[in-house]
Design a protein that fits this description.
The complex is a heterodimer of chains A (341) and B (221). Chain A is an all-alpha fold and 341 residues long. Chain A has one domain. Helices cover 58% and strands 2% of the residues of chain A. With 221 residues, chain B is mainly alpha-helical. Chain B has one domain (6-219). Helix content of chain B is 69%, strand content 0%. Chain B has helices at residues 6-32, 39-56, 65-90, 96-112, 121-124, 133-152, 158-161, 166-172, 188-196, 199-219. The longest helix of chain B is centred in the N-terminal third of the chain and has 27 residues, at 6-32. Mean pLDDT of chain B is 81; it is low at 122-127 and 170-184. The chains are: A mainly alpha (341), B mainly alpha (221). At the A-B interface, helix 1 and helix 4 of A face helix 6, helix 8 and helix 10 of B.
Chain lengths: 341, 221
């Protein structure tokens, strides 16, 4: 068997073999939308495996159904009734409900991998996310006034649905940012502004600005966390107790700044995306505790990591030359920039 | 009271035995056809498959923990060295040997924190001694990402051969076809290899291994 020279883009050429002309394997340019789709699939696969933890098959108040029951409180009675109804079914049939729950998430994760099943998988993920938001997250506690973004409000699973929409496969360029490829630049901007406006609002309404509520949010999470995370929790809990309202107001101020970033020239837009990533990285670690995964019994990694992923889909991929004089994106100019010379 | 269905662990345990058996087929075909590509990955998958089947179903477990620890330490060092050599030869890149090193490290971690009761994977989540959950979670996430990106990669078979191996260079890149054989060398072993040693199946066994190992790591949380 002869070994022909091989060169993969980005790697040095392989040693020449005994015979044959050089064979060059070139990679296509990176498809960032595809990369984000696969990252989303990885999170779905993680969720599917988390759904198989022993806690999920445990009936009673110490199990998954008990957790679902607890989400009903604070919601309007008719919503609470639907949540407790679902929790009762899970309580009586933990295996025959939880195993299909996991299977659906496996189907979504692996479905996103194949380009043939990508659209059905993303569609299923939207439907599933909305169902989980209702029955599994108690509508993100929006109606009970506890949907602070610090705790994952308005519901981590909503961001799965949003990412499925923004990463809907569509041919074209990833410019000016990946999220614009599926819904267009204007549509993506509207979604971005709506998301950050909602996060700003939820930061300061209900118990979102209550120092005690924010402190309890962290204090209730550290029972089985590793020592280093417990120490972080103690610090963040103490911080919230003394500066909880200020922290909520600061977050409410940061959100509009991030929202405005999408209208700014790329260098400033990048700064706002970085701001969003840094803020929600801190929240994800110090408040959400990675969704409580490290303590066991979590169903997902909570909203922090998904907000970060969402923000990265808005990372400007054009430079300042590809913007119009008024500082707004010029898609036509951006598209010309990426055309081969 | 947990009601974790035992069939779930039997399912994963059986899957690991299938992967181990498939690795034996690949090893035999590699030796028979004198094409020593990916034999270290096959040995690693064989041993990990046998070992993990015993973690999922305790009565299938065999061998002393110390022996398994030694085996996975040797394999970890082997793949780390191969990663370094690969980077030395091809420049800084994400060598496929690295993910095999990660997998062997995860195996070592699971043996360092042994099961305390004869309940297989059920006991792993309930015992008192456990590694840092952050490490288990990071390793599990890397394995899940490896599973997803391996499946989606156009470089079929790269999980076993790597993208720089001659087999990949000639046949593997996106073809999804089975490796070709020397002219005029048609034997029963060749037929089996043609049937089973396909890049897609090789990747599938890697994906199964990653998902099962990630599950065990999540159970350790």
């Amino acid at each position: 068997m002869s070994i022909t020279e091989t060169r993969v883009s980005g790697c040095p050429a392989a040693p020449a073999g005994s015979t044959g002309s050089p064979k060059v394997l070139t990679r296509p340019p990176p498809d960032l939308q595809r990369t984000f789709q696969l990252a989303l699939a990885t999170v779905w696969l993680l969720d599917a495996i988390l759904q198989l933890q022993p806690f999920m098959f445990t009936p009673g108040s110490n199990g998954f159904s008990g957790m679902l029951h607890g989400l009903a409180g604070g919601n309007p009675s008719w919503i609470a009734h639907t949540i407790t109804w679902n929790a009762s079914i899970v309580d009586h049939h933990p295996v025959s409900t939880d195993a299909p729950f996991a299977l659906i998430q496996f189907l979504i994760g692996f479905g996103i991998v194949s380009t043939r099943t990508l659209k059905p998988a993303l569609a299923l993920s939207i439907v599933w996310s909305l169902a989980v938001w209702w029955f599994g997250e108690g509508l993100g506690r929006v109606f009970s006034g506890g949907a602070t973004p610090f705790g994952g409000g308005p519901g981590a699973v909503l961001f799965y649905a949003l990412l499925a929409i923004l990463l809907w496969p569509r041919s074209g360029s990833d410019q000016p940012f990946v999220a614009a490829r599926a819904v267009g630049v204007k549509g993506a901007k509207v979604i971005w502004v709506a998301v950050w406006a909602l996060l700003a609002l939820l930061s300061v309404v209900g118990s979102g600005r209550s120092p005690r509520a924010l402190h309890d949010l962290v204090a209730g999470m550290n029972s089985r966390e590793p020592g280093w995370l417990t120490r972080i929790d103690v610090s963040s809990g103490s911080f919230f107790l003394h500066h909880g309202t200020s922290a909520a107001v600061v977050l409410a101020v940061i959100c509009p700044i991030v929202a405005a970033g999408v209208f700014l020239p790329p260098r400033f837009a990048r700064a706002t995306v970085v701001l969003a990533v840094v803020v929600f990285s801190v929240i994800w670690v110090a408040v959400q505790n990675f969704g409580g995964i490290l303590a066991g019994g979590a169903t997902d990694p909570n909203a922090g990591v998904l907000v970060i992923m969402l923000a990265l889909t808005y990372w400007p991929l054009t430079n300042d030359r590809a913007t119009a004089d008024n500082g707004a994106w010029d898609p036509a100019l951006a598209a010309r920039e990426v055309q081969p010379s | 009271m947990t009601t974790t269905p035992s069939w779930l662990y039997y399912l994963f345990g059986f899957l690991m035995l299938v992967v181990a058996a498939y690795s034996v087929v690949l090893l035999v075909s590699s030796v028979a056809t004198r094409r020593p590509l990916g034999w270290d990955v096959d040995i690693s998958h064989l041993l990990m498959g046998l070992s993990m089947s015993g973690m999922f179903v305790t009565k299938w477990a065999f061998g002393a923990s110390n022996v398994w620890e030694l085996i996975f330490t040797v394999l970890l060092i082997w793949f780390l060295v191969r990663s370094i050599l690969s980077m030395h030869r091809w420049g800084l890149h994400l060598s496929h040997f690295l993910i095999h090193a990660v997998m062997n490290f995860a195996m070592l971690l699971m043996y360092r924190f042994p099961v305390s009761a004869p309940m297989g994977a059920v006991a792993m989540s309930a015992r008192g001694s456990r590694p840092d959950p952050g490490l288990s979670f990071v390793l599990a996430f890397i394995l899940f990402a490896s599973a997803i990106f391996t499946l989606a990669s156009p470089n079929k078979g790269a999980s076993r051969h790597g993208t720089h191996a001659p087999a990949y260079a000639l046949e593997g890149a996106g073809s999804g076809a089975a490796p070709s054989h020397p002219a005029g060398s048609s034997t029963p072993v060749m037929s089996i290899e043609t049937l089973l040693a396909t890049p897609r199946l090789e990747d599938a066994s890697h994906v199964a291994m990653c998902v099962a190992m990630g599950f065990l790591l999540i159970l350790m949380l």
